[in-house]
């Protein structure tokens, strides 16, 4: 079994040399890796596509009654399942299927945590024409916990190491960590997987996934040894660290269970096909409490959607967008537009920077102290004002 990208895409990273040398590792133990190893010997239920066609009911009638879900859309994006079945199931994959199915409640718990992210991640996978199975990589890496941290320093849904994150452009500061931000880290992780597949492995995604786990240096050395011994040099031919030897089999195993949950006695949580969140641009300093109040949602819900925001305040200098529940996006946008009309238009709490404005002049115009205006808007340098930038005049 060897799986390749269906297209080749060259990604322009200014820091490609740094990226090539960076090592990535899952590090921390996920819930997936701590499931019991005893096998379940119960009788399997017959394979089913989950449509539940009643006697006398036509297949297409049942299909029409079943709306698309995040799970069904993900299954449509799977590219490896048919080949894996045709290859009579690699024993390492089957061993992990038995491992996971022994504790189906753990699968349900982890997939429940995928609720806010699964539909959006699947969209990104589809856009790149990558195998849908990769959308389940966070199951292996972090148990779909965006705040997961390993003792080795890997962080976030995709468990990105600091050095690799820097090479991928994921910014970090005392107020922001792009590795924790699901949107930024997902794009970076997929970029990294595609880049390595094209740069080192002629589009071989399995080898790229192995390198994602163990580092390209480790995989390349193992591959050279395999080739010197007359082996093809595919993932399944290599002698790799134990965790990496299990990495692709784990992904194929959980994908097989998601592909046919009824067969494996798993009841997946219902997740809508549409992404659960919307992205709102941050054009002025905005606290989570203010955003939550304007959107009409609990502040804790916004904090869960924005784990990269280490402080409770978003500023344009550090954060480009805020994630909010999709059904609340229009309300928040309307509220922000009302509050961000230029000074003099009936909204004294916001000033929209015009060309030629200085912080001193703005402070004088609105009778506030310049140091307060800078503090309220997290302005570190006086020459960083940009036309269209919105400044709060009250610190709220």
UniProtKB/TrEMBL annotation:
<comment type="similarity">
    <text>Belongs to the transglycosylase Slt family.</text>
</comment>
<feature type="compositionally biased region" description="Polar residues">
    <location>
        <begin position="30"/>
        <end position="48"/>
    </location>
</feature>
<dbReference type="GO" id="GO:0016020">
    <property type="term" value="C:membrane"/>
</dbReference>
<feature type="domain" description="LysM">
    <location>
        <begin position="349"/>
        <end position="393"/>
    </location>
</feature>
<dbReference type="InterPro" id="IPR008258">
    <property type="entry name" value="Transglycosylase_SLT_dom_1"/>
</dbReference>
<protein>
    <submittedName>
        <fullName>Membrane-bound lytic murein transglycosylase D</fullName>
    </submittedName>
</protein>
<dbReference type="Pfam" id="PF01476">
    <property type="entry name" value="LysM"/>
</dbReference>
<dbReference type="InterPro" id="IPR006311">
    <property type="entry name" value="TAT_signal"/>
</dbReference>
<dbReference type="GO" id="GO:0000270">
    <property type="term" value="P:peptidoglycan metabolic process"/>
</dbReference>
<keyword id="KW-0732">Signal</keyword>
<feature type="signal peptide">
    <location>
        <begin position="1"/>
        <end position="32"/>
    </location>
</feature>
<feature type="region of interest" description="Disordered">
    <location>
        <begin position="30"/>
        <end position="50"/>
    </location>
</feature>
<dbReference type="InterPro" id="IPR000189">
    <property type="entry name" value="Transglyc_AS"/>
</dbReference>
<dbReference type="InterPro" id="IPR023346">
    <property type="entry name" value="Lysozyme-like_dom_sf"/>
</dbReference>
<dbReference type="GO" id="GO:0008933">
    <property type="term" value="F:peptidoglycan lytic transglycosylase activity"/>
</dbReference>
<dbReference type="Pfam" id="PF01464">
    <property type="entry name" value="SLT"/>
</dbReference>
<dbReference type="InterPro" id="IPR018392">
    <property type="entry name" value="LysM"/>
</dbReference>
<dbReference type="InterPro" id="IPR036779">
    <property type="entry name" value="LysM_dom_sf"/>
</dbReference>
